[in-house]
Fold these 2 entries.
Entry 1:
Amino acid sequence: MRLTPNTYVALTGGLAAALGLALHLHGFDNASGGRSATVAAAAAAATAAERPHAPAPAAAPVPVPVLVTPEARAAAGPPDADAVRPALTGALALTTADSLLEEPYRVGEERRVVRVGSGDTLLAVMARAGVPRGEAHALVAALEEVYDPRDLQVGQEITLVLAHAGYGARLTGLELMPDVERHVVITSGAGGGFVAEEAANALETRLVAAGGRIEGSLAASTGASGVPYRVLDPLIRAFSYSVDFQRDIQPGDAFEILFERDFHPDGEIARDGGVVYARLNLGERDLAVYRFETGDGAVDYYDRDGQSVRRALLRTPVDGARLSSGYGMRRHPILGYSRMHQGVDFAAAAGTPIFAAGDGVVEVIGHNGGYGNYVRIRHNRTMSTAYGHMRRFASGLAQGSRVRQGDVIGYVGSTGLSTGPHLHYEVHVNGTQVNPLSVDLPVGRILEGAELVAFREAVAERDRRYAALTGTTQVAETPAD
Ligand SMILES: [Zn+2]
């Protein structure tokens, strides 16, 4: 069975209205893979239609010399042997004072989109388009007032604005978008030169919903439904405190994602933003996370109950214990020489229960040299905890077992290199032991008071938005586990 994941986009903005804007800035985001010629043409047509004062782009060159205006001829200047070439129609094209491009017969304004190639410069791009050198240099000089042309990226789109006058055309402007935040518009100034202006892009943020069954990996399934990996990555981190993505994801599990996407006024995708809501249905476990900004400006993911997904590790994973040996160099009580103590010791009566310091998966369980009976739990991609000298393990606990914070994983003993009953406890970050008492462990925050009220409103709103976008009336009612 394979259910096709779907993507839904909230069309909260008037696309037609957006298309009516005079400026068409072309995105170069990787999500859309660039604008297709058809879309570009449609957008150009829409632009023209909304701007009655602008001449409509000519559908095809009309080879009727009688239509060449006297002004155009005057602008073109006297014929010059180097510049005379046959036009496509066989008629002679007369260009070209230095400021004119050689073009098939055409009148009116044209917006020509060109792309920056590998090793390209703006001058080269303009030269390819036929812009005379003097004009190109003047334009680059103007551009440099607001933007360094060396920052152009391969594949970036540049819009040349051409005013056609018969067989010649004049470059009257250029537009480019250095990044999704801003655009640069160059127009010919009153004195004949060029003037560059920079302005912020009017981006509209909409919510995009995606959902479906998981086939293979979560990344593959969400990717198939149109969720870019870069959207998914922070989400995986948010779930990693409670989900082991190697083991917990099974075929048929389901996901829901609501994420932000910024659009340009013409409806093109500018960039993808953050995930505001996500849900994983993993058989019996149903996990939802909601992004929320607290009053202090901290942004984090919380479960449906308002508890941060960051689960703080227990600092003392054994009941009624006292710290008997700290982290750092010490004289080993049995070996007799100084060496690094890579964890902390908690003295406790033999048989005292030892708790999992956080949610996770048992990665190692068994006898382990000087550690004696040893358990290591992986909590997320970076963090593990280890427990040594146990008398015995909790019954049923095995490699791969999932544990929740506070679950009993074993009992205090004195196995391995140990002088008496105690728990040797280690915290590993990226495979290296750190001091459990000083490491900046993730702090699991629990919302309360006015913030909890605001959070609940946000949760209800996100659920409504997701349901509205996907057309489902089934809103997740399952409590977060
Ligand atoms: Zn120790």
Entry 2:
Amino acid sequence: MAANCSINLSSVFNIPTRSYSHRLSTRHAHPVLVFSVKTEEKLPAVKSPKEKSAANGAGSQSPDFKSTPTATLPSENPINADSSAISTPSRPLPLAAVLCNAVDDLINNFIDNPLRPSVDPRIVLAGNFAPAQETAPVACPKVEGTLPACVDGIYIRNGPNPRYVPRGGHHLFDGDGMLHAVRIKDGRATFCSRFVRTHKFVQEEMAGGPVVPNVFSGFYSLGAAMARGALLTARVALGLFNPSNGAGLANTSLLYFNRKLMALGESDLPYVMKVTQAGDIDTVGRYDFDGKLFMGMTAHPKIDPETKELFAFRYGPIPPFLNYFRVSPAGEKEPDVGILSMLQPSFIHDFAISKQYAIFPDTQIVVNPMDMIVGGGSPIGCDTAKVPRLGVIQRYATDESAMKWFEVPGFNFFHSLNAWDEGDEIVLIAANSYPVEHVLERTHLVHSTVEKVRKI
Ligand SMILES: [Fe+2]
């Protein structure tokens, strides 16, 4: 690292400035390579809520998510109705659960209503974004040509997909993690889709409906936040939900490290998954790196292809707001490096590593409960008065004493592409998203440009 720690802003420029819409083309912000798989007729078709509604003779253009009676939700759930893979408890709900669900409906209809378009399930879960059901392993018919017998592997992706029709608001990031996989072996291909059996998922299965408030859509105003917080507290007190094993969604990405396949979501620990010989996908369980990982881990860790080490971080609302760590190729996690020079929690979705450094964004998306209390907005919002920064720390640092921060006005990156060292310079390639104030609420208005930042 050069002794001069200023950043040359004139070197911040767009490289081939191919702007592209950041609107979700799949269920998550990450574009993924999707196989075109033509399946056998016995594969049940995925129906959108609109198609379901039409088939049921409702005659409505949009499904009426909010009026679904809670106690009968499972049987009316368009996700559940066609699913042969998920069982729903047939026993009647306990009275306490029925009462809590009724209070939930009151909150959704009278405190947090009307819904904003960005979290209205009639809009965000319509058409191509409609919930998809599980699909047990099914053989893919041969359309043309042959698969080499020597190919033995799997293409697998992760994305949010709500298990239950939400009672209230739903942001696209709020769905339960679902894996879709194409297993290729012995010249044949098998397709399968399975939910990640997270602790939240299992508990809501037992409850027969949503229990955990949606993080991105459930706390937009002080009234909604207080009401939902009180309701969740009541559910815990009544034994209807046990928060001791997290409430994450594992819906963001997949990691293959140390011979483990993990489904990741940054608000919780990783979930280890297993692909069976038949191409099915099982959830093994929550993984804490032998008791050394707490709370959560980024969904975008980095593996050094040469050293096979894993580099990652976790962030949250309690100081230190950022904790950086690495894991040996054998899976032994090193202690967290707490970054106390971050004075305010901000949304750190991704980072980058070079051979010598780890580079973190300190973006204008911040956690500020006062926005919710005073302004009636979300506790996660945009601070346009803040100047975004990049933090650089040696990647084998054991403390943050040598960490440097650089102001980068107008540069908010939520996904990196690469970083490398050039002598005393560090080069970062990342997607800059703007206008940043629309990143969470109006994603259809957000654009990203791939930009290069060079620190001299
Ligand atoms: Fe991401």
